[in-house]
Design goal:
Length: 100
């Protein structure tokens, strides 16, 4: 069975995709596979800068929230994951990120 797009998710641009995924899911996993195919960054999107960098407030493996956001160029991002076992478990333990 082929995966079907989620209703209400903007697939027309990276910015639209990030914005609508952030509204629909508490966390997302971001992959930059050309830089490191074995690593993903999990957290809450905090916006996109004028220089087209995704600001991500990351949650670590122990469900602890980073106080500062990481920033990755949107053109380097190769994949987003939302929902699912590991991501949902991190959110269940770590809760929502602190505002900052």
């Amino acid at each position: 069975m082929n995966p079907q797009p989620l209703a209400g998710i903007d697939l027309d641009s990276t910015t639209g995709l990030i914005t609508t995924l952030t509204k629909a899911f508490p966390l997302m996993a971001v992959y930059i596979e050309k830089i490191d195919p074995h690593l993903c960054h999990i957290g809450r999107a905090r916006g996109i800068t004028r220089k087209k960098r995704l600001r991500l407030q990351e949650i670590g493996p122990a469900a602890d929230w980073a106080l500062l956001c990481s920033a990755n160029r949107t053109k380097d991002i190769t994949r987003f994951d939302v929902g699912g076992g590991h991501i949902d478990a991190l959110h269940a333990v770590g809760g929502d990120p602190p505002e900052g």
